[in-house]
Design a protein that fits this description.
single chain, about 240 residues, mainly alpha, 12 helices, cell membrane, transport, ABC2_TM, ABC-2_transporter_component, ABC2_TM_bact-type
């Protein structure tokens, strides 16, 4: 990989995003709308305080997965990727460039969504707010990395969206948001241990409940980061020049 080429790829993608107002709204506004809706539904009850922090990890993950998988596939189906790979741009440069560009958007998304949840929706957390932002950024990057990975297996944008039930919904169901992971049947509990979103939800809940949670969430964050790196590495290996 060439750092100069990687940064040039990041700059190109950010310029494209700046001109795509709908995608920006999808990434920055939709998580806030969903959090606000849930806070409104459970107004006057303790439910939002129990699930709000965990959803700050789930919503960015889902949104970034959808946006990244579709955007990457569009590069391939339009012939852009094929043209780019005839230049010195390598697959690693492409993947990392995309990860950096959407990582910047992930930071903005996490800051906006966390601020909205705490200061507008009234989410009460015991731990430091900055750590909540860090985990939210990691979750968004995880969605980005998995979106880049699965885009290599889709032939159309519709197929890319169809991967959501296969890659996202099982993690959503088993991450402990609906039922505590230790209350799941043993097989499902074991499966949840291999799903990175489980560690994101665990970290968010720890931050919400524990005043000094840094030591307790370090392992969770390390697992999420490892899943990001692994997904990007596998994505660069499965990346195709064109869609057949």
């Amino acid at each position: 990989m060439n750092p100069r080429i990687t940064l040039a790829t990041t700059t190109r993608i950010l310029r494209q995003l700046r001109a795509d107002h709908r995608t920006i709204a999808m990434m920055l506004v939709v998580p806030c709308v969903l959090l606000g809706l849930l806070a409104w539904i459970f107004d006057g009850t303790p439910v939002f305080d129990r699930i709000g922090a965990a959803l700050l990890g789930v919503f960015p993950f889902v949104v970034m997965f959808i946006v990244t998988s579709v955007a990457t596939l569009r590069e391939r189906t339009s012939g852009t990727l094929e043209r780019l790979l005839t230049t010195p741009l390598g697959k690693g440069d492409f993947m990392l460039g995309y990860a950096l560009a959407f990582g910047i958007m992930a930071v903005l998304q996490a800051l906006i969504a966390t601020g909205f949840a705490i200061w507008v929706c009234g989410l009460d957390i015991a731990g430091p707010k900055w750590l909540l932002v860090v985990v939210a950024v990691c979750d968004a990057l995880l969605g980005t990395a998995l979106g880049l990975l699965v885009s290599g297996f889709a032939a159309t944008e519709f197929q890319a969206v169809q991967f959501m039930p296969a890659f996202v919904l099982p993690q959503f169901l088993l991450c402990g948001l609906l039922v505590p992971r230790d209350a799941l049947p043993s097989i499902l509990s074991t499966l949840s241990d291999f799903m990175p979103l489980s560690y994101a939800v665990d970290a968010m809940r720890t931050i919400a409940a524990v005043p000094e949670p840094v030591g307790e969430v370090t392992t969770d964050i390390a697992v999420i980061v490892g899943a990001i790196v692994l997904s990007l590495a596998l994505g660069s290996l499965t990346l195709r020049r064109r869609t057949p």
